[in-house]
């Protein structure tokens, strides 16, 4: 093997490695589920996990033991929100963002793992397994 061939092989290996690293760095994963359908988180990629039943749970906490009169209930609910230093509002915003994202991604079943806003994998409870399924489908699609 001459030096030119060796340099070409090293260049090709570096190019493939950089493409693999870039692909891993740009992977975007959203997980849509409920508390009844827990998903195993990944050690290899950060995923946004949205529990679509969380807004209802937060509202139930807010409404717990409210009086029947509207004015009293309103005052107590506002006091509860204010006492939590707007943490409740931030949580609601986060979880409703998940509901909107699921809707805009056309999620039809849970759990759903959405990869790069294009690929949806249903019924898988392990993010790493979903990533493996995704990678296998990408590899099969390559010529």
Break the fold down into its secondary structure elements and pairings.
Blueprint: H1 3-25, E1 29-33, E2 47-51, H2 54-63, H3 70-83, H4 87-104, E3 112-115, E4 119-122, H5 127-141
Parallel strand pairs: 1-2
Antiparallel strand pairs: 1-3, 3-4
Description:
The protein has helices spanning 3-25, 54-63, 70-83, 87-104, 127-141; strands spanning 29-33, 47-51, 112-115, 119-122. With 143 residues, it is α+β, with helices and mostly antiparallel strands. The protein is elongated. Mean pLDDT is 82; it is low at 4-24.
Short structural description:
This protein is an alpha+beta fold and 143 residues long. Helices cover 56% and strands 13% of the residues. The longest helix has 23 residues, at 3-25.
Shape: elongated
Q: From the helix content, strand content and strand pairing, which structural class follows?
A: alpha+beta
Oligomer kind: single chain
Question: What fraction strand?
Answer: 5-15%
Sheet bearing the most strands, described? 4 strands, mixed
End-to-end separation in angstroms reads 28 Å
Q: Could you state the order of secondary-structure elements as H and E?
A: HEEHHHEEH
């Amino acid at each position: 093997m001459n030096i030119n061939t060796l340099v070409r092989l090293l260049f090709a290996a570096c190019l493939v490695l950089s493409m693999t690293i870039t692909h891993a760095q740009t992977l975007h994963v959203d997980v849509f589920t409920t508390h009844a359908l827990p998903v195993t988180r990944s050690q290899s990629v950060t995923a946004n996990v949205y529990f679509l039943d969380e807004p209802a749970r937060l509202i139930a906490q807010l409404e717990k033991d409210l009086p029947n009169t509207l004015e009293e209930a309103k005052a107590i609910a506002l006091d509860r929100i204010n006492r939590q230093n707007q943490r409740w509002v931030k949580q609601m915003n986060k979880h409703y963002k998940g509901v909107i994202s699921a809707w805009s991604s056309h999620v039809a079943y849970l759990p759903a793992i959405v990869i790069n806003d294009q690929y949806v994998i249903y019924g898988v409870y392990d993010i790493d397994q979903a990533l493996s399924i995704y990678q296998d489908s990408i590899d099969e699609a390559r010529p």
